[in-house]
Amino acid sequence: SNMASDGSAKRGLWSSRLAFILAATGSAVGLGNVWKFPYITGENGGGAFVLVYLLCIAVIGIPIMMAEVFIGRSGRHNPVASMRLVAERNLRSPLWRVSAIIGVLAAFIILSFYSVIGGWAASYITHAASGDFTGQSAEVVNQIFGDLLASPGQLLMWHSLFMALVILVVAQGLKSGLERAVNILMPALFALLLLAVGYATTTGHFMEAVGFLFRPNFGALTVDGILIALGHAFFTLSLGMAIMMAYGSYLGRDISIGKTAVTVSVMDTGVALLAGLAIFPVVFANGLEAGAGPGLIFQTLPLAFGQMPMGTFFGTLFFVLLVFAAWTSAISLLEPVVEWFEEKTVVSRGGSAIIVGIACWLLGIASILSLNLWSDVTPLAMFERFEGKTIFDLLDYFTANIMLPLSGLLTAVFVGWFVAKESLQQDINLSNSAFGLWLNLLRFVTPVAVVIVFVYNLMS
Ligand code: PHE
Ligand code: NA
């Protein structure tokens, strides 16, 4: 591959295909896998839902991921500049870059509250390790969570610590920052997950969990369930946030975008299934509710660990796993914004990471206060739809329901319809039939599916 001609010599490349796969999988694997996937699967018909979800990953997730990686690698710049360059090369309007602008903005906003939640997980490492849950009642365990959310000081401390860890990695750049972090964190995460599944097999309720996750119950599958599967395919693969564009901008020319996107998606799905097999046996062994909503991780599971043999050890391990998963996702959220800031200004990579990171940390404080002192502050309460929604709720709502699908939709339409087919095929480097399939999915299936979810979410 000719590195000098496309500017990659100066910006650097991932050292290997594996390095990219670990970083992209690190981004994809997060709370969506460990908490949300097992939970929505249980609620929507188990195996039947899993089948629909796999279909959504294949026909929507993988094609959009490939389109994002293509734009990044083709442009070899930050997501906004890459999108503009690819548009101009195809004699299209530079305005297409709004797709990447929305993505970068969404990454910035999401990171501000993702860091707050990452802080919860970090604080739970210390609770679990010091035996705070051991033998406690549900009231006491719930109180620990309530006390954390009610304390701006506690939340701020953990949010600051978490954001500092994220800045620390991104400030050191591609090789000594991102690559070094995922080379350590991802193998550790996989090892912890396997250990957690091993522990779950000793609870005596493992097969119950297998049935809960895999027994296809087509009767329980609703239109709602199908749309949830669709939306989750998007979220779980970290699409619509310019992340895969940023990561793709460091990908070598000789690496297959198609194979790599499939690998990352398979790993993400594998982790989601394993997380279900780790969590539900523990939940069932203690006679707890599987569909316990947001409290599942911070209330139900700690209660269960508190009752179990070696619960202190495995509870601590579980929250370390959760922090590692959140950390690699947060790194991927900061990267596109820092890449953009660094190229837009004369500030160095380190300085850019610190400036963007601090701005994001500041915005995070609004989410922290939404949980306590500002819990009555509902800026859009004049609209019925937003009644009772705090600043935290609103940031979550607008990014997840509007910005991500919009960015993903524009990217799919742009790559599918407005990039010259010949150059696309050359760059994507798939066989004729595979290329044709991908292009048709991107042109017809993906946009229709995204629009359906988009409209549905706005209406419900
Ligand atoms: N893909 C992550 C998950 O499944 C969520 C995420 C969204 C991570 C956005 C990074 C950025 O949990
Ligand atoms: Na995921």
UniProtKB/TrEMBL annotation:
Q: Where are the transmembrane segments?
A: 18-35, 47-73, 94-117, 155-174, 181-206, 226-248, 260-284, 313-334, 354-374, 394-420, 440-459
Q: What keywords does the record list, in alphabetical order? A: Membrane, Symport, Transmembrane, Transmembrane helix, Transport
Record flagged with keyword Oxidoreductase: no
Q: What does the record say about its membrane topology?
A: Multi-pass membrane protein
Coarse class of the protein's main subcellular location: membrane
Q: Does the keyword Transmembrane apply?
A: yes
Compartments (UniProt record): Membrane
UniProt-listed Pfam families:
SNF
- Quote the PROSITE patterns the UniProt record gives: NA_NEUROTRAN_SYMP_1, NA_NEUROTRAN_SYMP_3
SUPFAM superfamilies recorded: SNF-like (SSF161070)
The entry sums up its family as follows: Belongs to the sodium:neurotransmitter symporter (SNF) (TC 2.A.22) family.
Which PANTHER family does the protein's record reference? TRANSPORTER (PTHR42948:SF1)
**What's the protein here called?**
Transporter
Q: What organism does the UniProt record list as the source?
A: Marinobacter xestospongiae
Kindly list the organism's lineage. Bacteria, Pseudomonadati, Pseudomonadota, Gammaproteobacteria, Pseudomonadales
